[in-house]
Amino acid sequence: MRRKLMLGVRVRSLRRRESLTQVQLAEKLEISPSYLNLIEHDRRPLTAPLLIKLAQLFQVDIAAFAAEDDGRLTADLLEAFGDPIFDDAALSNQDLRELATAQPDLARAVRRLYDAYIETRESAQDLATRLTDGQEGSELGRARLPSEEVSDLIQRHFSHFPDLEAGAERLWREASLNMSTIFADMAGYLRIVHGLTVRIAASSETRRVMRRLDRPNGELVLSEMLPPRARNFQLAHQIGLLEERAALERLTDDRELSTDESRTLARIVLANYFAGAVLMPYEPFLATARSLRYDVELLAERFAVSFEQVCHRLASLRRPGSEGVPFHMIRVDPAGNISKRFSASGIRFPRFGSGCPRWDVYQAFLTPGQLRIQISEMPDGGRYFCVAKAVRKGPGGFQAPHTMHAIGLGCEMNHARELTYADAMDLSRTETVIPIGTACRLCERLECAQRAFPAIQHPLRVDEDVRGISPFAPAE
């Protein structure tokens, strides 16, 4: 509790953002400047009444003061300093935790610098590959990937956007939407309000384009290759782009989105969020999720959406006073690349490279289409109840491109009984727990037979006369 209330750095950062002196802020808070100075230097805790006053004064959510960001920032620093280039640095995990807590802006700057280093290194590797193949090289020094910046934006908002939720609920009222006729209702709304006719076009016309807004002809063209539920999603997405432009611009006016590409991608991702909120309205969806005990496949059938869309929606149910189970969600491909990640459960995902091969989300590729259940334990002792499924995506048609992803969803063990999947396991049996880690370099489990790299916490000791369970695991 004391750690959560020692928030001097955040108070000082917000004060400086508004160009206020300590005297000016103290006057607004009705406290003495000396007391504010003690708070900013963590000599006095931030009381609940002052916390509320600050949130109102600076017009920020109280969650902005939460210690969760410290933990996420610490995890990012631990991963960055897990790089072999820092092997000689005499920095302990506690040093990095103190940096994230006491100097978060400096810690974020270090993280951005490491991100830039990673991108430059990958550019150099790409250039070397292209030159080896006799092709032209690519540019060096690329900016941080837009997808990474957008993922961080979603995480900072805890994957919940009240303005977009309100917009989706407004659309239901104004368009008189009905779940059984939602496609026709949205198409009629686009025609009446925006003068757009929805047309389903032959695949020979659209080729690989699934949705196209033809403004000169007043048409929204959808490919016949899209299944019905995907057509619903695309209609809702387009309405979001048209009607929630102000909210999208406001949300993407974020200093962490460093390029136009990042901001454009963020608008697309947020329009997808809006579409999910339309197809799965917050309160009805939450009530149904609770009644079905978070059965993802049944929810997908009930709301005519995909398995992945349900997982996205479950991870966004963070409305104050009406929260669902705090889930984490991850999406990976067969090569181990993480293309989506969000954590409300507290589990840590790697920012660079692949995760732990013992996660159920990677094991799901062994049994495509089947749900896998796992109780996972992180090295810090945290346990999570996880489900995963490998799903095939893509439009219809024999020659249409298809992709395979595995979707993982999970929560802390104290919420497991709320899920129908927990009925299939004896949660009290310790032998059912699978030890996992964030990534090999960060994991302290030296006995793991699937270890791919040595752990940064332990020097590599190799004895050519003795073979352990892996080349990186000690024999004794």
Characterize the structure shown.
The protein is of the alpha+beta class. It is 44% helix and 12% strand. The chain has a six-stranded mixed β-sheet with strand order 7-6-10-9-8-11. A three-stranded mixed β-sheet has the order 1-3-2. Strand 2 and strand 3 form a beta hairpin. Helix 7 (93-102) packs across helix 8 (104-132), helix 11 (182-194) runs parallel beside helix 13 and helix 14 packs across helix 15. The longest helix is centred in the first third of the chain and has 29 residues, at 104-132. Residues 1-5 and 129-143 have low confidence and may be disordered.
Largest sheet: 6 strands, mixed
Order of secondary-structure elements: HHHHHHHHHHHEHEEHHHHHHEEEEHEEEE
**DSSP, total strands:** 11
Helical content (DSSP H or I, runs of 4+): 40-55%
Low-confidence stretches: 1-5, 129-143
Strand composition percent? 5-15%
- Strand order in the sheet with the most strands: 7-6-10-9-8-11
What Rg is obtained from the alpha carbons, in whole angstroms? Answer: 25 Å
Structural class: alpha+beta
Distance between the termini: 41 Å
* Multimer state: single chain
**Average pLDDT for all residues:** 84
